[in-house]
Amino acid sequence: MLELMHILKAYQEIEQYDFIHDHSDAIGLALRAISSRLEPVIQTMHAPPTSKWYGPVHETVQSQLDLVVISAAQMNSAPHLRFVDMIHHGIQTDRFTFQQDK
């Protein structure tokens, strides 16, 4: 419930910001779809863009926001969507190797 209130407040006050960077998936997509304001929204997608829940919503609101994916697999699964960037959310295991004792 706290996440919902946080996101709702951001969209209610959108004119105060240069843009909103949203990680909330469906909640943010729905709020963007009904928002009449034109301030930019960047949505980082953490769910597959073609899932039965998010796919139709992404297609409906894609012209109203910029989509950022976290993997090439996400981007390749929905080439018809407008992605602006890919930001990997992984760890470089060759740089940060497992250590039993810290």
How is this structure best described in words?
The protein is an alpha/beta fold and about 100 residues long. The model has no long low-confidence stretch (mean pLDDT about 80). Helix 1 packs parallel to helix 2 (about 25-35) and helix 2 (about 25-35) runs parallel beside helix 3. The radius of gyration is 16 Å and the shape is globular. Helix 3 links the parallel strand 2 and strand 3 (about 65-70). The chain has helices spanning about 1-10, 25-35, 55-60, 70-75, and strands at about 20, 40-45, 65-70, 85. About 30% of the residues lie in helices and about 15% in strands. A 4-stranded parallel sheet has the order 1-2-3-4. It has 4 helices and 4 strands. It starts with a helix and ends in a 16-residue tail after the last strand. It has one domain (about 20-100).
Secondary structure: elements and pairs:
Elements: H1 2-12, E1 20-22, H2 26-34, E2 41-44, H3 55-61, E3 66-69, H4 72-77, E4 83-86
Parallel strand pairs: 1-2, 2-3, 3-4
Outline of the structure:
It is built from four helices and four strands. The protein is an alpha/beta fold and 102 residues long.
Feature tags:
102 residues, alpha/beta, 4 helices, globular
Mean pLDDT: 81
Rg on CA atoms, Å: 16 Å
Give start-end ranges of low-pLDDT stretches.
none
Number of domains: 1
Strand tally is: 4
- Beta-strand share of residues: 5-15%
Rough outline: globular
How many alpha or pi helices? 4
Helix and strand run: HEHEHEHE
For the biggest sheet, the summary is: 4 strands, parallel
Strand order of the largest sheet: 1-2-3-4
- By secondary-structure content and strand pairing, the structural class works out as alpha/beta
Assign a percent range to the helix content.
25-40%
Cα distance spanning the termini: 36 Å
